Amino acid sequence: MFKIPLFLSNLKTKKIAQKVAYMQSTNSTNTAIYEMLLNDEVKIKDVLITEQQTDGKGRRGDKWLSSKNKSLTFSFIINSEELSINKLSLLIGISIIKGIQKAANIRCKLKWPNDIMYENKKLGGVLIEKKRTHYIIGIGLNVNDCIFDSSIKSLACSIYSITNNEISRELLLAEIFNSYEQIVNKDIAQIIKIWESFCNHMNTFVKFHHSKKIVNAKFSGLNKHGNAIMSINDNQEIFNSGIIEL
Ligand code: BTN
Known about the structure:
This protein is α+β, with helices and mostly antiparallel strands. The chain contains six helices and twelve strands. It has a seven-stranded mixed beta sheet with strand order 1-2-3-7-6-5-4, with helices on both faces. It has a five-stranded antiparallel beta sheet with strand order 11-10-9-8-12, with no helix packed on it. α1 (4-10) packs parallel to α5 (169-183) and α3 (85-104) packs across α5 (169-183). The N and C termini lie far apart (35 Å). Biotin binds at residues 28-30, 53, 56-59, 62, 64, 73-75, 115, 125-127, 138-140.
């Protein structure tokens, strides 16, 4: 069971994640936290964490599978006027990479925009949904997971599968938010620089899924707004969405 006092004792933030709501089970923390916000049960920047999601959502309508009591599945909400979606999206990825490095001493990498990767296997993902003037940020991380569904077995990894050690999910979550608050006020140019230093496919050829097509493209980094620069047939194109396959 996730121990909220242990999480709070490791948290050094002044604004984000000051309050944590906990559910044994829910359909999706993204869905549940928004309902709770509408019912005044949580506020902006509070966190909802669950041990088990019965209908976890991934990007592009995919399902998100996680292991009861082993993964981290949580969401929080911020006002959309506070940050641009590009900055937010990159910042979240960076905060997770830094948090994992602090709590587990492993260096994960980012696959654009914010998939958490270790040696080309996926350790975690981020789903950001916009509802009216809010961004709902949902994060799923494979932490102490040792068994993976057959549908993702060859593509997924967890901190446990990498290190053979169980780590404290409470410390990991606190370190993610500590990192978030340390960098949230940096400007987009600095965020882009840090993000590129963590990217695992800079200047390499990837398969790019966009507008129902798959093309071979070279990922050439991010432009000044944080969009992806792709070279496709020697033409540079800019994208703010799409899926990269390594
Ligand atoms: C992805 O496809 O990579 C994004 C996965 C996001 C999963 C998290 S788990 C917590 C939150 N609740 C959900 O239903 N999805 C996100």
